[in-house]
Amino acid sequence: MRNKNNQSILHQISFKLINCKGQSLAEFAVITAMMATFITTALPALSNVMESGKQQKSIDELDKLLLQAKNFYETTAALEGRGRLPGQDKYIYPVGGYNDLESLLLDLETFTTYTNEDIGLKWVSVFGKDNPKALMPDGAFFQDDEIRPDVDDDGVIKCRNCPVGRETGTDEWLYLFSNEELISPFQDGHYIYVVIPGGNTGEDVTAPRLCVADAENPRDLHKIIEF
Known about the structure:
The protein folds into two domains: 1-45; 52-226, no CATH class. It contains four helices and four strands; from the N terminus they run H-H-H-E-H-E-E-E. It has helices at residues 2-80, 101-108, 117-120, 169-176; strands at 124-125, 191-196, 209-214, 222-226. The longest helix has 79 residues, at 2-80. The N and C termini lie far apart (105 Å).
């Protein structure tokens, strides 16, 4: 009789253990599925946060470019009699392919990628397109700034009364940042700029305007300043 009772008790305990084990496995499977769901749904949110962080970082760097450009403008105004911007041989000359703000704004509406050849050719690299610390992305069409000659090979004046000590835009930007390039947080980012020339003289003089952008997406990542 005792053996039968013992067998009955053991059977009940065994059944409870098996039943408990089945519930644990089922619960574990549910929890695992929920975790997979959480991870799957969290990834886009995390990605958005990371992209947002990169955008803010790039915007901060653009602000630094504008601040240094302002310092450069004020310094050249004091030394040369008229302020100019990095890459400008004189305040009346452009850097890049724009002579008016309207054309620039029109292009920016569709300038979402550095692979846009028509628009990309109008822009100039801030720190140099072949700078090993901040290389221009493959497939981009940006240019390096060059010094405008005072007189061309045929004796034609190309830069009247231009500052003697002027340098390329790249050299002037690097000097402003103590040879510490700003590097875009984006894998295919690259800092570029254009200068819309000023004009006239005396009371009718107009100051140049500067636009800096990140090649990752110039339409959304750009800033313009007027002096």
